[in-house]
Amino acid sequence: MKRFIEQVAIVTGAGSGIGRATALRLAQEGAKVVLADWSEDGLQETVSQLPPETACIERKLDVSDEAGVRALVSEANERFGQIDILINNAGISGGSYPPVTENERADWEQILGVNLIGAMLMIKHVAPHMQERKQGAIVNTASVAGIRSGAGGNPYSASKAGVINLTQTAACDLGGFNIRVNAVCPGLVETGMTKPVFDYARANEKEHKLGGRCELRRYGKPEELAAAICFLASDDASYITGQALPVDGGNTASLNMPG
Ligand code: NAD
Single GO molecular-function term (predicted)? Predict the structure, then answer.
């Protein structure tokens, strides 16, 4: 399948996990890729795995820094002359899960700043280039944590619920320009973000429990998220916009009542 020939895709959080797998899939299907991440080492590792013929720009970026976002988007448009796809995937989890009575304002500001405001800033600066050409597809990485509690700390869950709502509002704002905006909601996937969870489970012989609350009885792989993200970014999803697709092995399909 080569769905993205001659298309230009920006991927944030491309230096690891789901973002890396998505960047590789887009490039394998013919896209020119603009890879952004806070981690330069991560970016270099992703670049080393790209098909050799891939046209690529890779840049260190903090998605919560509007000047940096503006500069990256301008550079991408000047170099490639168009932007067809935006994958808003950079994210941080914040790690711990204190109850709301122990939440720190600074943690909320940091997590909302990257996960939600960063996604908004990328859309704000990319969408005008798509509007000019009356075409584009944006896919945001939300989370099952944005649908139900229990899959992340309070600020992380709120940030991902915000990403789902941003997906809907941006789809309304941009639909008249033939720009589609969708989200995926991953369940548990083995990546840099979840490494502590997997390390703990393996050290305590509990790895088999990690997929236990999914109907498919296993956790997900970054490539499975990349497949769903690339579907939503492609013309195969040409009549889908404003939707948040759980890609979670059935985790949100069930109440998971005991017994
Ligand atoms: P990851 O940690 O492997 O990758 C996230 C990448 O984002 C890293 O390369 C990191 O350097 C980058 N990043 C972090 N802050 C950034 C910033 N301010 N600016 C630019 N880049 C930044 O984790 P992942 O699991 O691949 O996460 C990708 C997305 O998937 C995130 O939005 C995450 O919230 C979401 N998600 C992951 C899971 C899971 O189980 N792994 C579940 C639900 C949602």
Answer: oxidoreductase activity, acting on the CH-OH group of donors, NAD or NADP as acceptor
Task: Name all domains of the chain by residue range, CATH numbers in brackets.
Answer: 8-191+221-247 (3.40.50.720)
Is 93 within 8 Å of 152 (Cβ atoms)?
yes
Between helix 222-233 and helix 17-28 the angle, nearest 10°, is 50
Cα separations (Å) of 183 from 33, 203, 257? 19, 33, 27
- Nearest ligand 1 atom to alpha carbon 188: 40
Residue nearest to atom 4 of ligand 1 (CA): 16
pLDDT band at 207 (very low <50, low <70, confident <90, very high): confident
C-alpha to C-alpha distance for 7 and 135, rounded to whole angstroms: 11
How far apart, in whole angstroms, are the C-alpha atoms of residue 122 and residue 19? 15
For ligand 1, say whether the CB of 186 is within 6 Å of any of its atoms.
Answer: yes
Confirm if 103 and 156 have CB atoms less than 8 A apart.
no
User: Phi and psi (nearest 5°) for 244?
Assistant: -120, 110
Cα–Cα distance, 3 to 235 (Å, whole number)? 8
Query: What is the structure's pLDDT at 97?
Result: 81
